[in-house]
Write a structure and sequence with these properties.
By secondary structure, the protein is mainly alpha-helical. It has a domain of about 70 residues. Helices cover about 50% and strands about 10% of the residues. It has five helices and three strands, in the order ααβαββαα. It has a three-stranded antiparallel β-sheet. The N terminus is likely disordered.
């Protein structure tokens, strides 16, 4: 019997090419980077005076199960995983490349 992978890999030939980040996804990623991953005791609160894009992003993250509250709150387990990855990608892309440093 053939075993199934725990998390299936995305096969571009089966699902088409991956779409680029939309403005909505970028705002969600930006929201995830606002969390302090050094502690699980600190959340965020998005106030009514925040931009509509930030409010919507926070609500979408809550609907996806990444945040405990529609106005922020704390990261769920899945949210923490996503925030760790979002912050890692930001750190990597914000670093000067080796080829840029040599020029």
């Amino acid at each position: 019997m053939k075993s199934q992978p725990i998390s299936p890999q995305i096969n571009p030939t089966e699902r088409g090419t991956m779409m680029p980040y939309t403005p909505e996804l970028i705002e969600e990623l930006n929201t995830l980077t606002r969390f302090d991953l050094a502690t699980s005791q600190q959340g965020i609160k998005v106030h009514k005076t925040a931009s509509a894009a930030v409010i919507s992003a926070t609500q979408r993250l809550h609907a996806k199960g990444l945040l405990t509250q529609a106005d922020g709150g704390y990261l769920t387990g899945l949210g923490r995983d996503a925030a760790e990855h979002a912050q890692a990608v930001l750190a990597i892309l914000s670093t000067e490349s080796k080829t840029d440093a040599m020029v």
